[in-house]
């Protein structure tokens, strides 16, 4: 089970469908030509009903299944990476790097049903490392890309202010914010991905929220 | 009382807008590129050979091996007394067990309703529109919030929801101040964060919030502490002692370079005197629970001398610590690296229950003060936050963010049973104590 954009949990299959709405409308199996993968397209289409079996196929080296994983989770990973890096280009770069890491580490994934938390954690970590390596690129002013001020009455937070506030956080703190509020991971999942305890994650998140609250003027 | 932070909902909404850009990728090309670059990737776990039709004997062998191991393991566990045969157990209406209050509806929406049901899970009915119900320890008063997250008001009412009275100062458009109802239901203690002070961007320099006490009979608000007497600026976890004479809370100090100090403070309600009863490395102190006799505190913390944990450092070990309320006899009773949520002290004062997360789901663990632990059968679920004892100590309730309340016999004589589902809400449980 994973969370949808409103923070509520829903079956992974539902997220699969909703995530695809954000990307180009195309057939998951139609783009991949015959001869370079291990499984029949019909079988894969049937397996889409069971994301865990897609993971299992990818683990054994099935390119088609791996492509299906990318299709399903690339959006969430890139959005998490963007919160960490503050730059869409760097975020895409970090996500691609994360897929390479994921391909290598897929056999170590213990629970195929929890592949999305695992993947977004990898993407967040890649983005964090990229931020440290290429600081000059990642501290780009958000104002340069965000354009006009953008305030929604439902949350009353200006995206320009949000970008600046995020930029003032440590990369590790941006990772936490991204995993919790963009990817929808709970504190236990974050702790599982990075070590430490769920309670430690919660207390650190509380402090980050206090800082953001202050910077965004929501005392 | 675990309360939602309205700022969280606003931040989540803003982040969705912030990251709202189409993210397209040629997944097939990328998959092929990565796979081609690392054809020699080792495979483990889901070995293709295991399911290859040409080697059926390997699959059969592994299946038989797994079956034998399962049988032997199960017999060993039953023989050891760690688990018993599964018996259906349902909560029962005995002794001091009164109503169970919980929420239905989205916890981040203002239309959440407080529901109650009997101690056996029957007779559910809607009480009021509101969220986060909490009975006072003596069961005489119910408190809840309305309007969260945008314009929150805190109410107290009779246990059946009648006679609601607004508690001034605690609500507002920024959500409620962290508060705790006194055990006799006559006062509300709260952390006044309305004027946080300090400089932006760090908890360093934050002023410790004053603790105020609001009598629920309309008497003037009393300032229990000024805040200046407490060196640790970030306070949380306000918890009344069952005898009503003391209040405990956690304090956190950012020492810089990723290091933190966590402290436990106890305030004398009569005099306002504050004393630190424990200080531990790291940011781990978040769960505080008083023993029923008000003499001891339990909390989670890093072991003394442990390296201060940072999020991306190696996993730290969380201990459950018990200490006398005067700061003496501090003892790490057990390690609990899998703890999730709060600690709950049993009504007889002999055991501490908590939720533990693992690969197979969530289970209740019960810790004796001697350090022994037992666990219930696991319940599959994404997250669980709160476990509470029935007032008579016979049952433990817990809820999951999947929206289900489970009950389990505190002797683990059966598996957890579902009491209510489709709540669409979590961390919202309270069990009323009644005198029969």
Shape of chain B: globular
Mind telling me the C-alpha Rg of chain A? 18 Å
Q: How many H/I helices of chain A?
A: 12
Q: Record the strand order, biggest sheet of chain A.
A: 1-2
The biggest chain-chain interface is: A-B, 83 and 79 residues
Distance between the termini of chain A: 34 Å
- The percentage of residues in β strands of chain B lies in 35-45%
In round numbers, the mean pLDDT of chain A is 68
Overall, the morphology of chain A is globular
> What is the H/E order of chain A?
EEHHHHHHHHHHHH
- Residues in helices of chain B, as a percent range: 10-25%
Tell me the helix content of chain A: 55-70%
Main structural class of chain A? mainly alpha
Alpha-carbon distance between the termini of chain B?
26 Å
Task: Please give a structural write-up.
By secondary structure, chain A is mainly alpha-helical. In chain A, 65% of the residues lie in helices and 2% in strands. Chain A contains twelve helices and two strands; from the N terminus they run E-E-H-H-H-H-H-H-H-H-H-H-H-H. In chain A, strands 1-2 form a two-stranded antiparallel ribbon. In chain A, helix 6 runs antiparallel to helix 10 (171-182) and helix 11 packs across helix 12. The radius of gyration of chain A is 18 Å and the shape is globular. Chain B has 436 residues and is mostly beta strands. In chain B, 12% of the residues lie in helices and 38% in strands. Chain B has four helices and 28 strands. The longest helix of chain B is centred in the first third of the chain and has 25 residues, at 56-80. Chain B is globular. In chain B, 46% of the residues are buried. Classes of the chains: A mainly alpha (219), B mainly beta (436). At the A-B interface, helix 4, helix 5, helix 9, helix 10 and helix 11 of A face helix 1 and helix 2 of B.
